[in-house]
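Section 3.1: Structural characterization of target chains.
Under the original work plan, the team committed to producing a structural model for every single-chain target entering the pipeline before any wet-lab resources were allocated. The record below documents one such target. The sequence was received from the expression subgroup and is listed exactly as submitted; it comprises 430 residues.
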Amino acid sequence: MNRETSTIRLAVFVSVGMVVALAGGCTANHQARRVQAEQHWNEVRGKIKLQLARQQFEHGLVDEAVSYLEESLGWDTKNVEAFMLLAECRLSQGRIQAAERAIEHAYELDSQNAKVLSVRAMIAERTKRFADALRDYRLAREIDDTEVSYLIAEAECLVEMGQADEALRLLETTKLYYDNNPSLLALSGEIALKLGDRDSAEQAFRAVLAAGHYTPVIAEEYALLAVRSHRFAEALTVLQPLFDKHGDQLAPSVIRAVAKCMLELNRPEAVKMTLRGVLKNNPDDYAAWILLAKAGIKSGDMGSARRGASNAERLAPSDPQTLLISAYVKLRQKNYVAASRALDKLIAQNDRDVLAHCLLGLVSLKTKDIDKARASYERALAIDPDCHWARTALQRLSAPTHVEPPIDAYGQKDRQSNDHNEVAMGMNIQ
C-alpha cells in the first residue's frame, strides 16, 4: 500500500512539474513575441514620423522637420535614413557640428550606404575639407556608379582643390557612360570656361541646349560665348526669349549682350530701348553708355550719341572706345580741334588702329590739312591693304577736284593687328 502511494505521489509530482514547465515556456514565448511586436510597432511609428519630417523638409520647414525626426529617432534609434535627414536639416540650419554628429551616427550604422557617404562628403565640403569630401564621394560612386550626382560632386571637389584639369578629364572620360548627362555636360562647360577653353565650353553648352536641358544660366553662358565669336544672330536667338521673359531681372552683362547683338544686326532703335533700364539702374555702366553712343550714331540720333559719349568720357576718358566715339561726335559738332586731339591721343596708344587713322584723315580734310589727311590714309592702308575707306580716300585726294571721301568703311577688321572694331560708326558723311 505504501509503495503504491509513493508511486502515485511521484507521478503526480512529475505531472505537476511538466505543467509548470510548459506554462513557463508559454509565458516566455509570449513575452518574446510581445517585445518583438512592440519593437515592430515602434519602428512603424518611427517611419511615420520620418515621412512627416521629409514632407516638412521638402516644403522648407526645417525646424518642424527636426521635431519630427527627434520623435522618429525616439521610437527607432537605429534608423539610418532619419539620421541622414537630420544631418541635412542641421546643415540647412548652419549647425555644422550637429550635422556631423548626426551623419556619424548614420555612418556607424551603415558605412557602406552610398547616400550616407554623400551626405558625409557634403558636410565635409561645407567645412572646406575637400580631400575628405573627395574620398567619400569616390567611395559612394564605387558603391553606386549609376548616380551621376556623385561624379559631379567629385569633379567640383577637384576644382576646389585647384585640380580643374583633372576634373575636366574625369568628366570627359565618363560622359559616355552617363549618356552625356546634361548636368555633367554643363559642368564640363563651366570648368572649360574657368580654364579659358572657350571652344570646349561652347561645345558643351551647345550639347546641353540641344538635349533640351534649357536653363537660363546655360543659355546665357552659351550666348555670351557666341557674342564673343561674333555670331550675333545665333546669340540673339538664344537671348531674346530670356530678355522678353525676365527683362531687367537679367544680369547687366546679359542685357548688354542683347543690345550688342541688336546693334550688330542693324537694330539701333531696339538697342536704345533695351539699355534704358540698365542705364537707369546703373548710371556708371560704361559699356552700356558706349553701346548707346554707337546706337545713336548708327541711327542718326546725335542726341543719344552725345549723351553716351559724354558719360563715357566721365567714366573712362582715356579708353580707346571713348576716344574714338568722342572724336566722331566732336566731328559731327564741327569741333575739329577736340576731335583731332582725341584721335592723336588714341593713335599714341595704338598706332595700328585703322579706324583712328581714317577718321583723323577726315578731320584733317575738314581743317584743310591735305598733307596730314593723306598721311593718315596712307598709314591706314599700310596697316590694312584691304581698307576700302583709305583706298577710296587716297584715290579721291589724287583727283583734281579733291572730292572729300565719305565714311563708308567703318567696322572693318584689321587683319594684321587682329583687332576687331565692333560696329560701323554710322551714316556716310558727304
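The domain at 339-430 is CATH 1.25.40 (Serine Threonine Protein Phosphatase 5, Tetratricopeptide repeat).
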